[in-house]
Design goal:
Structural class: alpha+beta
Largest sheet: 4 strands, mixed
CATH superfamily: Glutaredoxin
CATH architecture: 3-Layer(aba) Sandwich
CATH class: Alpha Beta
Radius of gyration: 16 Å
Number of helices: 9
Helix content: 40-55%
Distance between the termini: 22 Å
CATH topology: Glutaredoxin
Strand order of the largest sheet: 2-1-3-4
Strand content: 5-15%
Order of helices and strands: EHEHHHHHHEEHH
Number of domains: 1
Length: about 200
């Protein structure tokens, strides 16, 4: 059984699409998933990159593509009222939901759909408060412990060669992007080309 680490940020529509399509993409494959929230902006800063929403032409393409992908795959998706937005409240809530800072699938699903279903303000303090009451995390999302854990997740991601979200890491191998799911499946099934090309 392969262990997959899924690095994600709720701000990313591609991470949402990957999250929704992962079970179908890996149907019949033996694996477990560890969901690891990271601040996408922190990865961009480390690698000296702009976010896709900061480049007008790339932003327009992203909006077109993710809407098409969602429609193709039957996934409900509406961009939030403002995008990009500050996702720290959501990321810290996810981290606070588990002692190791690794939220389960239900928590991630709830947070992704908070952002990507309905077109509301994803960073609204009122909505965040209601979401916190719903998920009832064991720890205070605003605590120094939770903030440090989120930062540690980002440092761990960078150390493993992660540069964007969504990213899947298996056996030290990095698979970046929602469109990498077929390649990820192929690797888990023992793709001879990928195994032979490992550094």
């Amino acid at each position: 059984m392969k262990q997959i680490t899924f690095f994600l940020d709720f701000i990313s529509p591609y991470a949402y699409l990957a999250f929704e399509t992962l079970p179908k993409a890996l149907l019949g494959v033996s694996y477990t998933v560890s969901y690891q929230p990271v601040l996408f902006a922190g990865l961009l800063k480390h690698h000296g990159q702009l976010g896709p929403a900061e480049i007008p032409a790339k932003r327009d393409w992203m909006h077109r593509q993710v809407r098409w992908l969602a429609q193709r795959d039957g996934i409900p998706l509406q961009f939030p009222a403002q995008h990009p937005f500050n996702p720290l409240g959501l990321l810290r809530l996810a981290v606070a939901s588990d002692p190791a800072g690794l939220p389960n699938r239900y928590v991630c699903e709830t947070l992704f759909r908070h952002v990507w279903v309905g077109g509301a303000d994803a960073a609204s303090e009122e909505r965040l408060h209601l979401l916190t009451e719903l998920l009832a995390p064991a720890r205070d999302p605003r605590s120094a412990e939770v903030k440090a854990q989120l930062q540690a997740h980002g440092a761990a991601a960078i150390a493993q060669g992660v540069f964007g979200v969504p990213t899947f890491v298996v056996d030290g191998q990095v698979f970046w992007g929602q469109d990498a799911l077929p390649m990820l499946r192929s690797y888990i099934e023992g793709d001879a080309v990928q195994v032979a090309s490992r550094p």
